[in-house]
Amino acid sequence: MEEFLENSLDEIAQDNIRCYLGTYGDAVEARVSQCVKESKKLFKLKFWGSSLTLSVTAIEILIRFMILRPLVQGAFLSEEWAEILSKRITTGRSVEDRKLLPAILKQWKIDITVIKTKSNNSLWDTIQALINKRHGFVHSGEAIQKDEASKGFEAIDSLIKDIIAPVAEKLGFTLTETGKWHQIHKRAPDGGEHYMSFTPLNPFEKDRQLKQNTTART
What we know:
Helix content is 72%, strand content 5%. The chain contains nine helices and two strands, in the order ααααααααββα. Strands 1-2 form a two-stranded antiparallel ribbon.
């Protein structure tokens, strides 16, 4: 009975995560692509600080909307808790705050602390360093070097390739075939084929409305 309950809860959690990514994945991916495209333009123009800022924005979007929110909400916590954890990881100053993401990913058998970027640097250390560098540039005008800005692109690529893609594959997403989060290509045992579809929505619009409602109440 305990094994049955555990498996049932795991299936429900995966359904919740699949539904979240199927609904919001396309909008999040489009927003990240936009940030990366503009960041690369700034990089070519040698605006290292501005380029890094947009790269870190893309990193934070990936962490918040493609990892934390779906995984945390899939574990039956509220959307409010998912948002709180997202903010603590991306803006928290303490070491304990930054440990939240690795702890959550370990539940999916992913150890972010051992993942390496293309230049063989620790992904997790790189992300934390980039966030701190972005804070220094935005709030104190700290100079950003070319090699520091380039690490932002490596971190984004590694987050997608080594974390988001494996989770998506485990959940049955067929991104290489459909190119869309809201459409999953499924093959039946009898050889038939069909698609599982979700209604794509924009999580950023939803967040904007929530903030407006909160401001109006206060």
